[in-house]
Design brief:
mainly beta, Jelly Rolls, 5-stranded antiparallel sheet, 3-stranded antiparallel sheet, 0% helix
Length: 89
């Protein structure tokens, strides 16, 4: 299965609201440490990503995605990016 990019990459530290209208997003963590991804929708949920990991995340349209260090604290700008995607065959 392949992914189809539908948007430019967005810095999730400074421009996460740009992906609020997306249903499916690809997130890459370029940090050297783990991060926590928080999806604030009807029910707030979270997941953790290892350093260097990329994940595809399905979320509700309108739900905002924020990121922080897994150990607590803010991530640096330009270290975690997200793009709106779709799956294609």
């Amino acid at each position: 299965m392949a992914i189809k990019p539908l948007s430019l990459g967005k810095d999730l530290k400074t421009a996460s609201a740009d992906l609020d209208s997306a249903r499916l997003i690809s997130i890459i963590n370029t940090n050297t440490v783990a991060i926590k991804v928080v999806v604030a929708g009807t029910a707030t949920s979270e997941l953790h990503m290892a350093a260097g990991e990329r994940l595809s995340v399905e979320k509700d349209i309108g739900a905002n995605v924020t990121v922080e260090l897994a150990a607590g604290g803010a991530v640096n700008a330009a270290t975690v990016f997200g793009s709106q995607i779709a799956f294609t065959n």
